[in-house]
């Protein structure tokens, strides 16, 4: 775990500024609640290409853990890809939602489609913040003001958005809270073919133990005592 360098800090702040604008100062200057009189703040730290946002008191305590044993710290804001670009992760939604400049609200019928990873269409749009332009970072809410995710605005502006057809694309989905279930499902599945073969082999061996296998003259086998008795009588 280490502090971000100048290039990494610029990439992180530019991405956050796209969604929250000048409200970025509220995140950077956020005081550390433990202890409040020490004058500490929240900071960004890099661990295994992931950027974490945590109070300084938590960072100091995390220094006692070795790098290979430290799995997470505070809030995971995003990660750096192999090409060096920075992408926000869904864990930062609670961090950017209160300070979002541009917002859209989805109709109840369109919420599940968005939570399955689909983009937002004009037919599912309930409300939208005025003066939203192309490529603006937008936070998606339900009609009851529950944060659902975030993405990038596609139309030229809000006026062009109102003129779209019902199947016109309004927002590119870059993250939604449905990812929590989708990621959990992926973790439960075998990670590679070798692991899948091991699972199949274990299931086969377990099934083989439960059956009374008897040999035959041609080198094969017949399963079960009933099959053996039937073959013996014939």
TrEMBL record:
The keyword Nucleus applies. InterPro entries: NIP7_N (IPR040598), Nip7_N_euk (IPR055359), PUA (IPR002478), PUA-like_sf (IPR015947), PUA_sf (IPR036974), UPF0113_PUA (IPR005155). GO terms for biological process: ribosome biogenesis. The keyword RNA-binding applies. Keywords: Nucleus, Ribosome biogenesis, RNA-binding. Pfam families: pre-PUA_NIP7, UPF0113. SMART domains: PUA. CDD domains: Nip7_N_euk, PUA_Nip7-like. GO terms for cellular component: nucleolus. Its main location: nucleus. One of its GO terms (molecular function) is RNA binding. Residues 102-178 form the PUA domain. It is found in: Nucleus, Nucleolus. Belongs to the NIP7 family. This is PUA domain-containing protein. It comes from Acorus calamus (Sweet flag).
